[in-house]
Amino acid sequence: MTRRIAFKTLGCRLNQFETDSLVSQFRKAGYDIVGFGKEADVYIVNTCTVTNQSDKKSRQETNKASRQKRDAVLVVTGCMATNKREELEKEHKITYVVDNEHKNDIFHLVDSHFKGEIISQEELKADRFGFEPISKGLHTRNLIKIQDGCDNFCTFCIVPFVRGRAASRPWKDIKENIEKVLEYGYKEIVITGVNIGRYNTDGMNFEDLIEKILDIPGDFRVRISSIEPEGFGEKLFNLFGHPKLSPHLHLCIQSGSDKILMKMRRTYTVDDFRQMVNKIRSRIPDFNFTTDLMVGFPGETEEDFQLSLAAAEEFGFSHIHTFKYSVRKGTRAERMPDQIPEKIKTERSVVVRELAEKLKNQYRRSFIGKKQKVLVEKIDNQGIASGYGENYVPVKFQSGDQTRVNGFETVEITGIENGEDPDLIGKL
Question: How far is CA 300 from the centre of its chain?
Answer without folding.
Answer: 27
